[in-house]
Write the structure tokens for this entry.
Amino acid sequence: MTFTVKQKINVCNGKLLRMSHESESTGTTMDVNVYLPKQYWQCVRGNEALMKPIPTIYYLSGLTCTPQNASEKAMWQFQADKYGFVVVFPDTSPRGDDVPGDPEGSWDFGHGAGFYIDATKEPYSKNYNMYTYVHEELPRVLDQHFADTGKHVDFLENVSITGHSMGGYGALCGFLKQQAHYKSCSAFAPIVNPKNVPWGQKAFNGYLESKAEWDLHDPCELIKQTPREERRHILIHVGDADPFYEEQLKPQSIVEASQDTPWANKIELNIVAGFDHSYYFVSTFVPQHAKFHAEHLGLKEH
Amino acid sequence: MTFTVKQKINVCNGKLLRMSHESESTGTTMDVNVYLPKQYWQCVRGNEALMKPIPTIYYLSGLTCTPQNASEKAMWQFQADKYGFVVVFPDTSPRGDDVPGDPEGSWDFGHGAGFYIDATKEPYSKNYNMYTYVHEELPRVLDQHFADTGKHVDFLENVSITGHSMGGYGALCGFLKQQAHYKSCSAFAPIVNPKNVPWGQKAFNGYLESKAEWDLHDPCELIKQTPREERRHILIHVGDADPFYEEQLKPQSIVEASQDTPWANKIELNIVAGFDHSYYFVSTFVPQHAKFHAEHLGLKEH
């Protein structure tokens, strides 16, 4: 349960903690970065009376990424200080010599490509339990860990989720399956309809025992079955120069799937001209996503 | 003279151009990134009357870096759009199989470590002419290249310079030697007194024919000989948790050297608590440096 803090890095007016811990769900050591904004340190120093604990945004990264990519390139930290939220950057898969990867050594399956689902197929089902890890275990153990220093952060209830590409997919799935849990969901260039695109099909074929399970992990199917609580919204940005737009992302699919459901007109899909799939794209729209989540988390600009 | 545009990347409200060109000074192909802010594209589209051409900030990167590091991690782009300046990110050395590197293969000399000086010693003097490249050739050929699309950018006169670590050193040298040229200079964790620290001594021993030349390349010596034009200032930030603080940076040295010179009290040195040497540190203080340069370039917030 205990976290090892490997590095504490000053950035903006807060600190980024590079941590690791032994995960029950994955059976491995998992890396995770947590940005604690200036408001957290003001509380720790006792300089600020806390009306309620600081909310958390979970950011799920894309294929091949570690917690470092977004920490270094997405610039959530400026926004976290502006509104007063914590940002958690989990890893994208279990890792290690004992963890099976892709037998063909590709970058879009296995290590760095856990797809945020619980695998049901051998040999992946032992370690690849990223759904349980990200949406249940990690928030719980973070809550326990930080309880020692006072209940300054809310890792469990007043929380939102976002992500990029495979991580945007992971965010949508987590939100739609547990939407009472997350106050809002956003995504940067997400895979919205994995069962119908190559990246998703490869992941589902590899991690899931039977095709009957696929719909349980596809946002375009989930959205048809998920009741919508009031004030829940989804914000999506995708660049129209994204090289994966047509083949892997097909962002219109989720808007189409949401017609005749309570989610109709509750998904704001922005196709932005000229943007690609990189962190240049992500960092450009982080301020808009931060504002969106801040509103749902009841935060105001500081 | 001609640039090849390898990639044009949308970021913020402008575009980052990844370019390369054949350099006369280095005798090699040099990579350079140029961020053209939203104001540039408004001019190109003819939507905005230009009072005067858009000024330029040159950003010199540190040891081992390419134009990519700062482009991805320093977040100058937001500031460039805010005030309306172009940012140029040159490479840190000539590169290629024909370019001699460090015989010992270290990372702090040779490829990626050109130190922004003109080498006088064989075999480096043929290619390592980074002073001439950065301060003379590059501005001139950028001016020629962009003249084709109208004189929207001022690469030559209303310009400022900044940099990180070795690049902060390069910025200080260029500013002090040609200070009529740059309107202002700032530096993130610069090497201010290279002749007295290991990184600088290694570079000077390697690139310079004789020890008699060292003072010509040391900001702490240059500052004693450089007249100060009105309105010229230097802004420096260094983290006190920077692992290179004591051995390589010694930032107080330049403030001490400036006493009894026209630069006394014209250097704002900020020792910032808890910050390290990384781009987490740089990106945190880029907004302050952008504001500083904007003031010297006659720019207002847009």
